[in-house]
Amino acid sequence: MSALDSNIVTIALPNISKDFSAGYSLLGWVLAGYVLAVAALVLQSGKLGDNYGQKRIYLLGFAVFGVASALCGLSTSVYLLITFRIIQGAGASVMLATGIPLIFASFPPAERGAAVGINSVAWAVGAVAGPVLGGTLTSIDWRLIFYVNVPVAAAAILVGRARIPAWLNSKNPRAGALNIFSATVLGIVIGLVMLWLTLLDVRLAALSGLGVAGFAVVESKSKNPMLSRELLRNRGFVFSTVGLGIMMVSFFGVVFLMSFYFQSVAGFSPLAAGIWVAPLPAMLGIANPLAGKLFDRFRVPAVMSVAGALLVSASVFLLSSALKTTAPNDSILALLAVIGLAGGFVWAPSISSAIQFARPEMRGVANGTAFTLIYVGFATSIALVVSVSTAALPAALSAQIHSGSVTGLSAASASLFDQGLATALVALGVIGLLGVPFLLLVLREQAKQRKNYEAQEYSETGVPVAG
Question: DSSP of 354-408, one letter per residue?
């Protein structure tokens, strides 16, 4: 449901722009407000699940998400829509923070990578259905993209109550108390950074720097830090989450950018745009379970993440060149498919690695911390796409795109916007390459972990570990 909603909203943004006379920057916040809430709250949601029971909190997330979806559909202005999207993000943070720990608690170690990969199919199904279903519903009324979540959330709560075992409601008081103050400070800091990246204002850059420093001071002096000091000392966990967070900057911005390309530049209908975007999430759905299964077989599974990251960046660079042609062609479809396939080989192994480096009782917090960085990457991606794609445009056109509707551009304006979108893709590709060194460090940590495991097994049994 979370993936479905993200992609549905992306496809609907040009129509929302037309109805509310909202510009590119505000439209970015329809997505970014949701992402901001997830990034700020997902870690606290992980603690909430550890403290009060994963099953109970997981189903609460569906309830919040469903109510907020209904309110999004009832919005009468873009500002109300952004507000309700933030509440929706709060519900999503709960689902994201508790979902994977539920899986880890339900499967033995040798099957967890496969289980996470198979579970990721649910994300991929939503991601595949999102563009096509979103295009169909948006052609009727964009508000339907939010209303569709209400019956899904209700069904999930009913099925979850009956089918998720009661023992998964066990509480872990050692997870620590919630830290709402630090979460609030983090949300403000992320918001300032996103505003700076969107508007490229020096004053916002200074405030962002002060905010980051202030958050570091608050955390260092806190008796109950939001970010677990144990996890921050765990190099394997840190390298996994930072590398994945950086890669998500490169990956997430592509669908957002391509939605505007197909509708505002190529002139496609929402349904046609959804069909053209669909190869990316479709291939992501194929890659995730395969990468999950391979995770359980590889001695150092991060080798898949490194290969996937390099392929994502290379494909994003090629997609930038393809956008400069006169019309969409088969090469764009192929490149979107490759980006989705490569992204699956980054996502499943990296998130599984991050959780595997943590102690069992820390998995909820570890998962929440990982998703905090992932969604900071998501938010950063949207802000960068907005700023870079309009930075070199004439002032009048940039003002129109930022402040007014992005629909109805003239042929000349659409061509200039196309060049800006292509430049934004280059920026995303470069950022993706910055994540590769961290994933290489994960390789090293996994090799050490494997060596220590084999040495322990040999000392206990006197028999070398096979493979």
Answer: HHHTS-GGGHHHHHHHHHHHHHHHHHHHHHHHHHHHHHTS-HHHHHHHHHS-SSS
